[in-house]
Amino acid sequence: MTTTKEELKAIRKEAVAGDFALLKMFRDCTIKNYNNHVPVMDIKIWNDTFTLEVNKFKPAGASIVVTEAWNGKEYKMAFTHQPVLVPDYDRMKTFFQTLLFHNLDSQIMDNLTAKADGFVISIHDAFLCAPGNAGKLRKEYAVQLKEIHTNRHKILSDFRTSIGATDIKADIAFMNLYNAVEQVPEDTVFNATAMK
Predict the structure, then answer these.
(1) pLDDT tier, 32 (very low <50, low <70, confident <90, very high otherwise)
(2) Which of 58, 67, 165, 173 could form a disulfide with 160 if both were Cys (CB 3.0 to 4.6 A apart)?
(3) Claim to verify: residue 66 and residue 146 sit in the same structural domain
(4) Domain residues for 72?
């Protein structure tokens, strides 16, 4: 399969000014400008605050462990290397992009489940429920989307503060992203059919 010149132009346009460019801008906000190099941090997203511990580590050297053993005649020594591990913040910060969206999804599902009149199983951003409950939960889903939209500035500000994306470079990256995204008007009505 060969790629034509027109196809390459379209791909480049998408990467420079399309959705892929927006993804790169979002990466710049959360990954490139993350400065919170602490092993434990408190994260705030919308109505949820939780503790996040770094769970990615990288070797930063090794220490020598000397073990002595008596074999009945003499002591024998064995030397082994024990890696010294330190938090890998470069790998950890790649988690922040999905953390924001998955946490918002989970909060919406928690809220919907709490308002259900009967059986409901939530699965990320979808749910399974009794047919008589579906209409009510879909309408409530639209209400939840509207609430996130209304509070989006505070949600993003709290999140950026909690991950340490607060210096001038982070602010510039965020403003570049904000200005590149078409803003949904404040009076937007979210449709109940958005819920699966």
Answers:
(1) confident
(2) 165
(3) no
(4) 57-87
Quote the tokens at residue 178.
Answer: 């904000």
Three-state secondary structure of the chain? CCCCHHHHHHHHHHHHHCHHHHHHHHHHHHHHCCCCCCCEEEEEECCEEEEEECCCEEEEEEEEEEEEEECCCCEEEEEEEEEEEEECHHHHHHHHHHHHHHHHHHHHHHHHHHHCCCCEEEECCEEEECHHHHHHHHHHHHHHHHHHHHCHHHHHHHHHHHHCCCCHHHHHHHHHHHHHCCCCCCCCCCCHHHCC
Q: Both 95 and 46 in a single domain?
A: yes
d(CA 168, CA 73): 68
Two structure tokens written together for 54: 């770094």
Rounded distance between C-alpha atoms, residue 22 and residue 182, angstroms: 11
Check whether residue 21 and residue 66 sit in a common domain.
Answer: no
One domain, residues 124 and 62: no
* pLDDT at site 166: 87
Based on the fold, state whether residues 96 and 81 are members of the same structural domain.
no
Q: Could you tell me the two tokens for 1?
A: 């399969």
Number of other CB atoms surrounding residue 19 within 10 Å: 9
**Looking at the predicted structure, is the pLDDT value of residue 124 above 80?**
no
